[in-house]
Design brief:
5-stranded antiparallel sheet; 9 strands
Length: about 200
């Protein structure tokens, strides 16, 4: 997937004027990128539009105007984009009961070895970003990639059914990827233009 460039970002004045409208478009776009797996976990599959928005928001919120600093933000968030033959997602553990957060996260240690993308019956192991779990702590926000070999990638593009499987001892769930999300992911793998078109829809309306 093509990286976000400095020219893709909006200037501060224009972004400020259009921020609310952009946010509404991003929320709508994410409906075709999010998969809920049970009551506590969701995956947001990243693309140019979602990464652009995170970058643009950080530049806005932090009042970043220095071009080198903006390029650093582009590089940081750009690392979330999937490669040519993979899917990538932000993996969120959502625990709303404040007193239970620590205990629930503790129970889910080792979950990085228990997440799969099922492609019409064949499983692809999720690869988690390192450094977000230790013997004392598990981050509620994780980043995961599903590398696809050529044959599996072709099956996804051709319309194979997808499911997210979690087989952790404390959290065993399987969730079929909704059709809108499946189509969006297949388009990502088909060509880079689909991802850039999504960015333009979110950015420009």
């Amino acid at each position: 997937m093509d990286p976000i460039g400095l020219d893709d970002l909006l200037g501060r004045e224009r972004y400020g004027a259009e921020r609310d409208a952009i946010r509404h478009r991003v929320i709508e776009h994410k409906r075709s990128r999010r998969v809920r797996v049970g009551e506590r976990i969701s995956l947001l599959f990243e693309d140019c539009a979602t990464v652009w928005y995170q970058t643009q928001e950080m530049v806005w919120v932090e009042h970043i105007t220095d071009l080198d600093a903006i390029r650093e933000e582009i590089e940081v968030y750009g690392a979330l984009l999937p490669g040519r033959s993979e899917l990538s997602a932000t993996f969120l553990i959502e625990i709303t009961e404040q007193p239970r957060i620590r205990d629930e996260l503790w129970r889910l240690r080792g979950i990085d070895r228990h997440v799969w993308l099922d492609v019409a019956g064949d499983r692809v192991a999720g690869l988690f970003e390192e450094g977000r779990e230790s013997e004392h702590k598990l981050s509620a926000v994780q980043y995961i990639r599903f590398p696809l070999d050529a044959a599996t990638r072709a099956r996804v593009v051709d319309g194979a059914s997808l499911a997210v499987v979690i087989d952790h001892p404390a959290y065993n769930r399987t969730e079929q990827v909704p059709e809108a999300v499946r189509r969006s992911l297949a388009a990502d793998l088909r060509d880079d233009e689909a991802a850039m078109a999504a960015l333009r829809r979110v950015r420009d309306g």
